[in-house]
Amino acid sequence: MKKLCLLFISFFFLTTLLPxxxxxxxxxxxxxxxxxxNGFMDLRFGMFIHWGPxxxxxxxxxxxxxxxxxxxxxxxxxxxxxxxxxxxxxxxxTAKDAGMKYLTITxxxxxxxxxxxxxxxxxxxxxxxxxxxxxxxxxxxxxKQGIKFCIYFTVLDWYDPNxxxxxxxxxxIDPKANMNKFVNTTMKGELKELITRYHPYMLWFDGDWxxxxxxxxxxxxxxxxxxxxxxxxxxxxxxxxxxVEMTSTSVGDYATPEQTIGALNMKDPWETCMTxxxxxxxxxxxxxxxLKECIQTLAKTSGGNGNLLFNVGPMLDGRMExxxxxxxxxxxxxxxxxxxSIYNTKGGPYAPNDTFATTxxxxxxxxxxxxxxxxxxxxxxxxxxxxxxxxFIGGAKVSFTQETNGDVVISLPAQLPNENDSVIxxxxxxxxxxxxxxxxxxx
Length: 443
Ligand code: FHN
What we know:
It contains nine helices and 15 strands. It is an alpha/beta fold. The chain has a seven-stranded parallel β-sheet with strand order 5-4-3-2-1-7-6. Ligand FHN is lined by residues 61-63, 206, 258, 273, 280.
């Protein structure tokens, strides 16, 4: 009798008094810690790579399956896939020469093809003509060259019979599918291989929007991933809902605005992902962004206190396009001069716009001048601090006045040092990172 009472009391305690582990939100004590997240945000600039057998057709990865490319044809492209000119060291060097600090590869995109030798599906690189571990080669090259290695992994897999959808926008789910088996055996198995074998710095999830994937799966998966590596950074596309901003139910560590520059946010970490061309995967003669747009996008994301994950789509033979390599090298050349105003900085205190953006580090306030059409620039609201001196980074002194109300008026020369983004360094008499966000008047 006594034993029974004891059993009842402990059952009562466990099931009612202990806070139930929420299935809708991640417990605060297992989230990626602030120090790691600050380190990620200090990197500011990474390379995104969308690549796979679909490059044999030059159409969009995942989305062209069953559209421009019939499903049967798309799903058998891997048998022809033989990127003999793939050189992981060259890809990583291209990222490094661009000034990028991390690299994210689509290990598995929505078409379900895996770029590493997984035991959980034969739809992987070892069954292609190429038969080499692309993910492993890139992880090794990143380690050798001091670039953080990161992995893109989609939760939706239109190829796997156990995932209930087999085409984008499919209405009825496949009754023969088994989502629990897909999540708990295949997905967890693949992710365990990726984490324990390649030790990614960050996991870039995608595909959270389809019905079969639930918030409960997301929370449980976040906990599982953290049990494998408590320090791995995870984006907010593991959970359901808004990608652009972090919300109370976001599952993941940072927000992921796509093909657009995120809003100034001094509270939540965010990273814009954007293509250097138009398509994520390689497309012949795709339109490529100008150097001005590339550099100003990077400066505006940093100015908004965010990172930029900039995407290239390598070709079917394993090389990146020479014109993309050159464009990235030009970004790297700009960063060689102005990198101090991007890396390890905070964004703000002004929201970026098409005329200028600001970043800051300690007692330095950096003003990025995008337009050569203006002869002066007023920065309001710099009260309680004094500008001691100003000069273009790597260049001439800049003349300015500071009003008694703190407003600073900069006089700009007719010829700016850099046609894409000329950066002025203001040395202040106090810490620029403590300046609260300042809203510019619309006029
Ligand atoms: O569907 C994918 C798309 O193919 C691409 O991978 C982008 C990159 O962020 N994410 C999804 C679209 O939001």
